[in-house]
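Components:
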Amino acid sequence: MKPSSSQLALAEALRRLPGIGPKSAQRIAYHMLQHDRDGARQLSQALAEAVERIRHCERCNTFTEETVCALCMNPEREQSLLCVTETPADMLMIEQTLAYKGLYFVLMGSLSPLDGIGPREINLGKLMARVADGTVTEVVLATSFNNEGEATAHYIGEMLKARGIRVTRLARGVPVGAELEYVDVGTIARALMDRRIT
Amino acid sequence: MKPSSSQLALAEALRRLPGIGPKSAQRIAYHMLQHDRDGARQLSQALAEAVERIRHCERCNTFTEETVCALCMNPEREQSLLCVTETPADMLMIEQTLAYKGLYFVLMGSLSPLDGIGPREINLGKLMARVADGTVTEVVLATSFNNEGEATAHYIGEMLKARGIRVTRLARGVPVGAELEYVDVGTIARALMDRRIT
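Structure:
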């Protein structure tokens, strides 16, 4: 006795989701079929529509349903300032701070030569084309502070400096609200080096 | 700046999956759109087909694409023996032992009055109709050994015994391969009570 082929196909397809193994896939398939067929229909449609409609913004490379996204089209954003992030989620985090008024460029990844992710995979050609007309005078590098993010920031920084663009990086330091006792030593060391006069 | 509406709809739909919160949903949506659009298409189709095709077997209540599933139609299975499980996954586990040659009935749940799951929700009417013709002479209760599963087994057992059907329960005891030191005391107590002459 095997599960029906549609059920096997569903469990197999669910395994394509990141972080879902065979047991979870089977459990999810069971849950959706037994308790949430509406949810299954909704997810099916959402996946199909998203794959159909979502593309990359021609200017900032983020996900959008337009040729150029609404943020890039907004004339009130500061045109000379460009913030580089790894993902659309990182870009949204920065937007939520309400502390940034410039434009963005989303790499959709970070350099990771061992995983086969080089400059082409993170759209550096598109970034260079984006800054070629001279409107952008400062690029804020907001990649992650892990190894890949730091390497990516370094690599991009060198390329941009060679073209005479001012390159800055988000400040490193102790997170707001953190108790020193629970912050890692590397962060504290960095926060000491970068200490500021108040 | 908000994510596009298709992307929001996808993240929202992914939250219908059990165990997926808002951050995971956003991360999965990003992954599928950026790295696995084929997987997204495949999952969309699998969900739609599964919802469309899968129903419950008229005899054993498991998921199937037929009116009566292949196992129930198999004349070589012992017709007088019926094993009751909570889910199709539990049924598959028992099949994998190759130690059972009878038929099944899948409750699709277990009694849990506090969650509003009563006899009707776990298809007890269908089970009683299934055993009404007298072919089945023994029912093996293979519900879980947690509170809900035990309560369910007790409830069903009483109903079946009142109809003169022999009712058995899977043996409790120390798992195969387990070291006693790491087995919980309740299991050991049970294994002592149910000890067998070798």
